[in-house]
Amino acid sequence: MSLTLNRAMTATDAPPVMEARRWLDGVSFPPERPLINVSQAAPVAPPPEPLREAMADLVRRDPNVHLYGPVLGLPELRAEVAAQWCAAYEGQVTPEQVAITSGCNEAFAAAISVVASHGDEVILPTPWYFNHHMWLTMAGLKTVPLPTGDGLVPDPDRARALVTPRTRAIVLVSPNNPAGVEYPAATLAAFRDLARAHGLALIVDETYRDFDSRTGAPHDLFADPAWDDTLIQLYSFSKAYRLTGHRVGAMVAAPRVLAEVEKFLDTVTICPAQLGQHAALWGMRNLKDWLAGERHEILARRAAMQSGFAALDGWRLLGIGAYFAYAEHPFAERSDALARRLVRDAGVLLLPGTMFVPPDDPAGARQLRIAFANIDGAGIAEFLSRLGAVTGPRRT
């Protein structure tokens, strides 16, 4: 008799980025036309040299970085996040409202585990971040899609119609993954009011906040004195300081929420990796100007992508911002088939929209996600040139 597996796990989609990488098997790319990989939104360079030197010094001289630490994170890092959030959002956040996690995905898993039980419902705007949907499926929760339409900004009134007695949370990502869009402050406030009126958690993932094109606070949620009765904010240090391999994220929420989160974290990882936490703290204290330069470069790449798309015949840019562009292709074939063909015909690896929506949503078949942050201006020009050269039957 074969081993019986967890039905919720087997019902969960395969990791999309890993699936896409398998499309490269058996395909060769000549030196004069190397692969352009825009499938994953992760820095491909190591942390800047001063941060690496600081990390190496910590490894040598501080024995604590090799030991267990507090489950909810390094106290100094929690305090630094609270102080910088107070300044950035013009609100009030205390260290007791901050937890450090082993990456932002763990923060999401912990938050959902605290606010929802098996069989409950969580509202996700589509196109959604696939790891959010994957975790909900693994946990035996029902994902309730909230279509966003052409503007790719979710509508609170449309969400209101989806709330049922089993709804436990609404999840938003801004700047958005996969679509790049930056949600207006008024939209976030309206979702806060909706969640509060129904006793729901509003989970806002701001992994890409450091690359928002707007100046000043992107929203005023933390200016609300009672923000922590509803809001759970998630963050990642991976993109800001190139710490992807060190897995450091954060959650900002009510102390009573974090008391329950502590149980989850203690069971899963015991504590976040000490070296990564110290690196994040050093980065927050010392790399402000460097991070501003990184943001400037990402915004320049965004502008190059946006202007270049205007010249592509039949292609339509639906959303752009931070690390991502989300586009509609002009071809008759489905985006999942097209994405595979682009590997062979164009030397391009990207993800189809079918990975970001339910199987019965026809929009995904027309859409593609482009993680452009890792290609420079010349790379973007070459990428757009290759897209423009792709041929095939078009939609009528």
Number of helices: 14
Look at the helices and sheets and give the structural class.
alpha/beta
User: What is the C-level CATH assignment of the largest domain?
Assistant: Alpha Beta
Task: Report the CATH architecture of the largest domain.
Answer: 3-Layer(aba) Sandwich
Instruction: Give the full name of the CATH homologous superfamily of the largest domain.
Output: Type I PLP-dependent aspartate aminotransferase-like (Major domain)
Instruction: Return the domain count.
Output: 2
Describe this structure in words.
With 396 residues, this protein is α/β, with parallel strands linked by helices. The protein folds into 2 domains: 8-46 and 290-389, Aspartate Aminotransferase, domain 1 (Alpha-Beta Complex); 49-287, Aspartate Aminotransferase, domain 2, CATH 3.40.640. The chain has helices spanning 7-10, 16-22, 49-61, 75-89, 104-115, 130-138, 156-160, 185-198, 238-241, 255-268, 274-286, 288-309, 335-346, 377-389; strands spanning 36-37, 98-101, 121-126, 142-147, 167-173, 201-205, 231-236, 249-252, 316-321, 324-328, 348-349, 351-352, 367-371. The longest helix has 22 residues, at 288-309. The chain is globular and about 55 Å long. 45% of the residues are buried.
Keywords:
396 residues, alpha/beta, Aspartate Aminotransferase, domain 1, Aspartate Aminotransferase, domain 2, seven-stranded mixed β-sheet, four-stranded antiparallel β-sheet
Brief account:
With 396 residues, the protein is of the alpha/beta class.
